[in-house]
Amino acid sequence: MAIGSKNLDAESLREKSDADLVEELGKAKESLFNLRFQAATGQLESHGRLKAVRRDIARIYTIMRERELGIIPVVASASDDAAKGDAA
């Protein structure tokens, strides 16, 4: 597998809803901020982790852009399915 988090490969990201992707993106950006802060203060032990988190962020943005362009279908979240069931 490529460098990055275990649960953030392209296949698992494509199965997530838009809201889940936004949440994962927020987590990854926060992690990147913390890693950059550690690097600036000399406390970072694994510099490869910076590269991995940046790739995770890029992967999330790619999936979001694919959905925006209609290249891949949008996965409905569980809350969207429940709302449709209530409306019917």
Automatic annotation (TrEMBL):
GO biological process: translation
Alphabetical UniProt keywords: Ribonucleoprotein, Ribosomal protein
GO cellular component, as recorded: cytosolic large ribosomal subunit
GO molecular function: structural constituent of ribosome
InterPro entries referenced in this protein's UniProt entry, alphabetically: Ribosomal_protein_uL29 (IPR050063), Ribosomal_uL29 (IPR001854), Ribosomal_uL29_CS (IPR018254), Ribosomal_uL29_sf (IPR036049)
TM helices/strands, residue ranges: none
Name under which the protein is recorded: Large ribosomal subunit protein uL29
Gene that produces this protein: rpmC
Family: Belongs to the universal ribosomal protein uL29 family.
N-terminal signal peptide: none
